[in-house]
Amino acid sequence: MNAIRSLDIDYNALMAPIAASSAAEKIAFLQTQLPLLWRDEYQRMSQRETSLVRLRHNSFEFIYDNYSYLEATGIIPYSLVEDRLVAVCGISEPPSIVRDDYRLKGWVGPTEKTFGRQCDKGHFIAHSVGGAVDRLEVNVFIQRRDLNRGWSDEGRRYVAMEKYAARRPGTFLFSRPLYENQTSRPAFLEYGVLKETGELWIELFDNREDLVGTSGLEPLTPSVSGKCSTN
Hints:
- The radius of gyration is 17 Å and the shape is globular.
- By secondary structure, the chain is an alpha+beta fold.
- The strands form three sheets. The protein has a six-stranded antiparallel β-sheet, sandwiched between helices.
- It is built from six helices and ten strands.
- A hairpin with a 2-residue loop joins strand 2 (52-57) and strand 3.
- 32% of the residues are buried.
């Protein structure tokens, strides 16, 4: 299998033409343009056939690589490649239902037994901003526990971004996993929030943890432009 290449999206350049636009105009622009950029970068990164679909859940749109469809229909032979999320973006909203984490218990298997004590079953889009699990398993991934629970410096930044969006319903946000192999476990997580100031706040979080079965693959070294000031 070929090594997966680095990724680089210039978010500053993307935001520059709409610096003086209203918040609603910026959101509409990002919801249109970002999925296209993410699609192209994902296909470049994967270096294989993809089967991309777009799913909507409330105010969020999920872009998903339904690779198993290609195998099931005989387009390509069966392999160890896993279905996985490309990205998700949308508008934060107060949760309309109680947490449905009971569904996590049946996803793959017991967390610590299957993945180890340093892992959680995390959500790309948290319940606090409108995410779900029931009938939306594409929203679940294997996440480092210290990142998910805010125990590390990175984790505190990650949780702070989720809380920012949760406390301000109507905030545009996105979550974009970056992979270093052909499994569904992200090596990095790119998380973005459009702040009230018009700044696109982006952070890159390390989700790696002694992954098994990655020998022969060069590690992913993504480059992210970081915070984008659009004032």
